[in-house]
Each structure stands twice: as structure tokens, then as C-alpha cells.
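Q: My labmate handed me this sequence with no annotations at all. I'd like to see what the chain might look like in three dimensions before we decide whether it's worth expressing. Could you predict it?
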Amino acid sequence: MSTTRTTTDKPNGIASSGRPLTRPQVARLLGVGVATVQRWIDSGELAAKNLAADLTARPRLFIMPAALEDFLERRGKIDGAKSLPKRPRRHEGPPPGAEYFQW
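A: Here is what I predict for the chain of 103 residues:
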């Protein structure tokens, strides 16, 4: 019995599979949460298609592999988002006035 490995296991060859990806699959590939993928879709950064049978029903969003590769190229990283730059932390150290509460 032979097992076939899909290219969705590796972000480099996403477009070669040709199969649409779900939001959880994209999140797992990129090492982010599903909510982050949804934010990218809502903001228009990541293109997704609604493949629901009835357009009045709950949307079934799928990301086409070519759209994901375009997104990664625009982000500056095609070999996976694990190495995308992280946003700086908002707070470094204690907040101002914290010494007031120390005894």
C-alpha cells in the first residue's frame, strides 16, 4: 500500500496540489490561529472563496493555493509563515506608576 504525500504539508509547494484549503488547514500550515486567518480574509489580505451550495446558508470559505502563495509573497515569506516577523510587544516592563502600588 503506497501513501501519497500532499503538498499541503509543505507551504513551498502549495499551488501544485490545486485543492482548496480550509481555514484550519491554512492556520496549521502557517502556525497561526484560525481567527488570524479569518481576520486576513475579512481585511482582504487573503482571498477566499465561498463554496457553500446555497449562498444564503452559512459560508464555507476555502482558500485557493495560488491565493495563499500570493499572500505569502506579499508578506515577504514564501517558505512558511513560522518565520514571519512578529509584532513588537505592547508593554515592555511594568506599566508607568507601578511603583505606587509596591510597599
